[in-house]
Amino acid sequence: MKSYKDAKSAYNIEFGISMTIYVISIIGGTFLIGNLNPPLFIKYIIAIIPSLAIGGQIIAYLRFINHCDEFLKAAMAKIFIISTGITLFLCSFWGFLENFNLVSHIELWIVYVIFWFSYGVVTLLGKFVFKSLDTGLCG
Question: b/e per residue, 40-71, with b = 16+ CB within 10 A?
Fold first, then answer.
């Protein structure tokens, strides 16, 4: 098993590569589509690239969790699951508000942002969350 330091270093590299591809693909794709109006199949490829970068970031995170000790693995998985639940709740709630024409539509890519924002909040409140949700994962 890799040490935590080695796993964190590998994660930072993988995360950096994924997010560099993401940023370049968003900026480059916006420029290409806005200025050159490429054929439809090229637009699909441009649209897929940022999603693949997000997938790479998620895989990097899961690989990082896999190299952590059992306590950290359980804690990080719990935070990931809670954050996913919060994201599902918020997106469903907003979707119902949209269905009844009470709010404006939000683009789906925002879901990823909502998830990581939720992850950050849950991480900051981790001690409270772990004490209040007795699932047996953390003692």
Answer: eeeeeebeebbeebbebbeebbeebbebbeee
Q: CB–CB of 57/22 below 8 Å? A: yes
Q: Are 38 and 28 in contact (CB under 8 A)?
A: no
pLDDT digits (tens, 9 = 90+) for 80-106: 999 999 999 999 999 999 999 999 999
- Residue 33's CB is within 10 A of a number of other CB atoms, namely 14
CB 64 within 8 A of CB 11: yes
- Whole-model pTM: value is 0.81
Token digits for 89? 């709740």
- CA separation for the pair 17, 14 (Å, rounded): 5
